[in-house]
Automatic annotation (TrEMBL):
Protein name: Thioredoxin
Gene3D superfamilies, per the entry: Glutaredoxin (3.40.30.10), Tetratricopeptide repeat domain (1.25.40.10)
Keywords: Disulfide bond, Electron transport, Redox-active center, Transport
Pfam families on file: Thioredoxin, TPR_19, TPR_20
Organism listed in the record: Imhoffiella purpurea
Domain of life (superkingdom): Bacteria
Family, as annotated: Belongs to the thioredoxin family.
InterPro entries, A to Z: Thioredoxin, Thioredoxin-like_sf, Thioredoxin_CS, Thioredoxin_domain, TPR-like_helical_dom_sf
Entry's Gene Ontology molecular function annotations: protein-disulfide reductase activity
Length: 287
C-alpha cells in the first residue's frame, strides 16, 4: 500500500468509488501496470512524485493488471504501461509508455483546473441563464488573463450558440483544441447544437404533434418532435421517437433515427441506465 494521500490502489471492487466517482471532484490519473513490466517500474515512482508535487490537484490510482485482468480488459488496455486520465466519470485522455517527466507534466496540465476556470464556470452559468452581456465581460477578462486556457474556446462556442448562431457554433466546435475532443461537456454541447440546428426553422411542437396524428408516417415530424424533447431534457421521450423513426424509416435523413439516438447517448455521457436500456433496444431493432 502507499502512504501518500494522493496515491491509491484501485481494484475492480473499488474502481467505481476511487476513480469514476472521485473524478467528478478532481482528475484521476490511472496507471495500469504489471510487476514484470520494466517501463512500468520506471514510470511508477515518477507518477507518485508528481502526484505529491501537484498537492492533490489530481489523484493517482494504480491498477495491477496481473491481479485485475477484467478491469484492464474493460478499459481496453493492450500494452503496458498505459495511463488513462478520468474526468466526470469517464476516460478522456491517455498515454502509453514511460514518457519523460516534461511530457507527463504537459499531459497532466492539460486537464488540471486553472486559476481562470472559476471565471469560465461563472460565465457558462450566465450564458445558460441568458445573461449574455455579463458573461461576455467575464470571457473578455479570461481572454486577457489566460488566453491559452482551452476551456475559453468552449465557452465562446456556447456564447455563439446562445446568441442564436447555431450553424457557426457547430462549425467552431469541430475546431476546439485537441485536448477537449473527448471532454464530456463538449459531447453534450455537440448533441444540443445538433438538435437546436434541426429546429432552426421548424414548426412548434403542437403543430408537429398534429401532423403526426394525421399521418404516422411523417418522419420529419417525428424527428423534429424528438429534437424538441431533447432541448427540454426529456431524453426518454426523444429516444422513444428516434427509435420508432429508426424502425419505420431508415432512409429518412440518412438514417437520422439511429444517428439521433447515438447523438443523445453522447449528450448523456455515453453511460447510465437510460443509455444502456435504449442502446439495447437499438441493437435489438437493428439485428
Amino acid at each position: 500500500m502507499t502512504d501518500s494521500p494522493n496515491v491509491v490502489i484501485a481494484t475492480a471492487e473499488s474502481f467505481q468509488s476511487l476513480v469514476l466517482d472521485a473524478s467528478f471532484d478532481r482528475p484521476v490519473l490511472v496507471d495500469f501496470w504489471a510487476d514484470w513490466c520494466a517501463p512500468c517500474r520506471m514510470l511508477m515512482p515518477l507518477l507518485a512524485k508528481l502526484a505529491d508535487e501537484y498537492r492533490g490537484r489530481f489523484l493517482l490510482a494504480k491498477v495491477n493488471t496481473e491481479e485485475e485482468q477484467a478491469l484492464a480488459a474493460q478499459f481496453g488496455i493492450r500494452s503496458l504501461p498505459t495511463v488513462q486520465l478520468f474526468k466526470s466519470g469517464r476516460a478522456v485522455d491517455q498515454f502509453m509508455g514511460a514518457l519523460p517527466e516534461s511530457q507527463i507534466r504537459e499531459f497532466i496540465d492539460r486537464h488540471i483546473p486553472r486559476a481562470t476556470d472559476g471565471l469560465l464556470t461563472q460565465a457558462q452559468h450566465l450564458i445558460a441563464a441568458g445573461s449574455l452581456e455579463e458573461a461576455r465581460g467575464l470571457l473578455e477578462r479570461v481572454k486577457a488573463e489566460d488566453p491559452d486556457n482551452a476551456r475559453l474556446r468552449l465557452a465562446e462556442v456556447q456564447m455563439t450558440a446562445a446568441e442564436g448562431d447555431v450553424a457557426t457554433a457547430l462549425d467552431e466546435i469541430d475546431r476546439l483544441p485537441l485536448e477537449l475532443v473527448n471532454d464530456p461537456e463538449v459531447a453534450t454541447l455537440r448533441g444540443q447544437l445538433r438538435f437546436s440546428s434541426a429546429l432552426s426553422d421548424a414548426p412548434p411542437e403542437a403543430e408537429l404533434k398534429a401532423r403526426l396524428q394525421q399521418d404516422d408516417k411523417d418522419s420529419e415530424a417525428r424527428y423534429l418532435l424528438a429534437a424538441h424533447h431533447v432541448l427540454r431534457a426529456d431524453y426518454a421521450g426523444a429516444l422513444d421517437l428516434l427509435l420508432d423513426l429508426m424502425k419505420r424509416d431508415r432512409a429518412y435523413g440518412d438514417d437520422a433515427g439511429r444517428k439521433g439516438m447515438l447523438a443523445v447517448f453522447d449528450l448523456l455521457g455515453g453511460g447510465g441506465d437510460l443509455v444502456a436500456g435504449y442502446r439495447a433496444k437499438m441493437m435489438n431493432a437493428l439485428y
